[in-house]
Amino acid sequence: MALYVKAAEILQKAEKKQGALKTLVYDSKFSNIKQLFALVCETHKFSSILQEVIEATKLLKQTKLQMHLAKVLVYDLLMGQGLKCGGSWKAMMLKHRSRLQAELARMKVRQKVSRNEDLLPAGAQRASGDQLPRYVRVNTLKTTVDDAVDYLKRDGFSYLGQATRVDDVNLKRKDFVRDLHLPEVLAFSPRTDFHEHFLYKAGHIILQDKASCLPAFLLDPAPGSRVIDACAAPGNKTSHLAAIMKNKGKLFAFDLDAKRLATMSTLLLRAGVTCHQLAHCDFLKVDPDSPQYKDVEYILLDPSCSGSGMVCLRDDASDQDEDQARLASLASFQLRCLNHSLRFPHLKRLVYSTCSIHRQENEDVVTACLQQNPGFRLVPLLPQWPERGLEPLTQCLRASVSRTCTHGFFVALLEKAAGHGSSQVTAHGPSTCEKRPAGSADESGASETEEIQTPAAAQTDGTNGKKKKKRSRKKKKAAAE
Ligand SMILES: C[S@@+](CC[C@H](N)C(=O)[O-])C[C@H]1O[C@@H](n2cnc3c(N)ncnc32)[C@H](O)[C@@H]1O
């Protein structure tokens, strides 16, 4: 019920121009942001059709529902995966279901179409996220790609082999392929649903967009190494890192949001991840010189971002001024995270990623960081990847619906330049990892509940003043050389 009330509230606010749809969803602090995203986006997309059905059936008069609430309920009843509420609302909606279904069917007959999607204007159909392939990543901690493929074949899917072109992921019905660029990724037709599938429930496959598999794949931490996932929840990239590390070494995962960390904990358990240590804390307050973290060699930084690359989150109602202010604040947070990451004294490689399409959060952040940290350089990535970072940062990758058949995404890989010691980077910021209320995360996303280990970083320190001075001396020396 809370889901529908929240979704209706967001749709109403967006209509009154009280904020962009995506901002309102992020700001809602709802416990399951993904579910709320999906419902709001889809209801928004079908809004005019839902309104027509509701008006034709006189649903508001008969139920006393308010229009936005009626729209989200009717969406889930007729087009979504069924009502997720019980009690009086469910009973009421079920009472009207056949009339609502009949009205939707009449609309399709009138327009001579068979699918709900076909009722949408052409532009809206193109922007739809459900046109993207369903990607799954095979979790090599639990199985192999060959075994997963065999299982799926026995389960009625037809395997077409490895893709040879980007377009080969435009698949029909039960067809699937192995991805062109990422060997552990399989692609299926857009509406394939694995939520009830054995391989998903047993953690053998992870439902993850292809672009979001790039960061861990490119960082490629060695098994046995020490790795940080700085803004980790809900943990798909963490589980990917663990698979690449073969569960050997130490994977420190931080997040500000306790509820998202709790979700993450379940996800990691299902995926068989054992080399991790979760910490509910602000990454910016983790001390790079503490005994626990000083040997970290790899960092994956996937900080909060505008989410503008997520296809379903693009909306026309966005307020330009608000977006600019929000982007500036996100970019400043992202740059702080990036600069802080480069302070880990033994860092070799860092991957920076966002699901944003905005230059401000991507190339501009990386450029500013490189200017402030001349000891690091960009690594040219996957020459065969079809979409590059915006000039001049063509070493980086971008992803998009049109060029890579994925959500919009950006990835940069930074490595310590040869000849640069451990002290080239800027020294700043606080030195302990203190708990912050989850709500204070910049654009944090969602929430759930606690479990979480106390960050070892919170127990460190006392020696930091000395370390900072030493670092600052080293930095001055390096600058003079
Ligand atoms: C884009 S999401 C990360 C998604 C994750 N990498 C994955 O693949 O599942 C960004 C996350 O950063 C967290 N976050 C925001 N500010 C943070 C901070 N200062 N320290 C640690 N985590 C932070 C948010 O709570 C959110 O869960």
Essential attributes:
alpha/beta; Rossmann fold; 3 domains; 8-stranded mixed β-sheet; 18 helices; disordered C terminus; binds S-adenosylmethionine
Model description:
It is a single chain. Strands 6, 7, 8, 9, 10, 11, 12 and 13 form an 8-stranded mixed beta sheet that branches. This protein folds into 3 domains: 2-119, no CATH class; 133-208, Sun protein, domain 3 (Alpha-Beta Plaits, 2-Layer Sandwich), CATH 3.30.70.1170; 219-471, Rossmann fold (3-Layer(aba) Sandwich). It is globular, with a radius of gyration of 24 Å. Helix 14 links the parallel strand 9 (298-301) and strand 10. The protein has helices spanning 2-15, 21-27, 33-45, 47-56, 59-63, 67-79, 87-111, 122-126, 145-154, 198-201, 214-219, 236-244, 258-270, 320-341, 363-372, 401-404, 456-459, 464-480, and strands at 134-138, 158-162, 175-178, 185-188, 205-207, 226-229, 250-255, 276-280, 298-301, 349-354, 376-378, 397-399, 409-416. 40% of the residues lie in helices and 12% in strands. The protein is α/β, with parallel strands linked by helices. S-adenosylmethionine is lined by residues 231-237, 254-257, 260, 282-284, 302-304, 441-442, 444-445.
